[in-house]
Design brief:
By secondary structure, the chain is an alpha+beta fold. The protein is built from nine helices and five strands. The longest helix is centred in the first third of the chain and has 25 residues. The chain is rod-shaped and about 80 Å long.
Length: 224
């Protein structure tokens, strides 16, 4: 009569000890720590309209999940082939609104892979360098970034005054589109700010003949 171990002799019991408890604990603790670091960098560098805390939590979970998957793959060659086939049918339908979010997703996955491969210094030092670079470049003041000003006025005279006013308050002002209706003109102008002061939009909106003025940044933020 076959024993219990003979029944599960197809490497099942052998796989239980293929990765030691200590290795799993160290890898998961480091994955959690680096995932939290990635989450904090994401929170500090986020510049979109609405901050999503769930995406930040996803970055931490993705780092740990990737670590678990790669630990399993590296401990069993047969499992790695099956994992490739299983993951090939996975499709993600969530739309990525910010291009920088893609970089954070790849960063989390890369850290999980590197940690599970045992390259701890590469994962830690590489993450610190990437985080510092993102903090420096993403949070850098960009007063000369392009903006769009949408001005609604009542005719040619107010349109001319608004354009002349913006020419004096900005480094560059170019009309991108113009919509004219009876008794109403809408201008879309691309401008470059001299500094980070946007109070001129308030003055523009108070000008005679101007019904509204809106300042819009290219990344979707409304200012003014």
């Amino acid at each position: 009569m076959n024993s219990f171990s003979d029944i599960f002799k197809s490497n099942f019991l052998e796989n239980v000890t293929s990765v030691s408890i200590l290795d799993m604990a160290i890898a998961l603790v480091l994955a959690f720590g680096l995932g939290m670091f990635i989450f904090l960098v994401y929170k500090k560098t986020y510049s979109g309209v609405m901050y999503s805390s769930s995406f930040g939590t996803t970055l931490v979970a993705l780092t740990m999940i990737t670590t678990v998957v790669i630990l399993a793959v590296t401990s069993n060659v047969v499992l790695s082939l099956g994992m490739v086939g299983a993951l090939s049918i996975v499709r993600f339908r969530t739309a990525i609104k910010e291009p920088l979010d893609i970089a954070f997703l790849f960063w989390s996955i890369a850290v999980g892979i590197v940690l599970a491969a045992g390259m701890i210094p590469l994962a830690v030092i590489g993450s610190i360098i990437i985080g510092v670079i993102l903090l420096v470049f993403v949070n850098r003041k960009a007063c000369k970034n392009p903006y769009i000003v949408v001005v609604r006025c009542d005719g040619h005279d107010s349109e001319t005054k608004a354009k002349a006013f913006l020419d004096g308050k900005t480094e560059r002002c170019v009309i991108k589109s113009k919509t004219a209706q009876k008794g109403s003109v809408e201008l879309n102008m691309e401008i470059r700010l001299k500094d980070d002061n946007t109070d001129f939009v308030n003055t523009l909106a108070d000008m005679e003949g101007v019904s509204s003025a809106v300042l819009v940044s290219y990344n979707g933020d409304y200012m003014g």
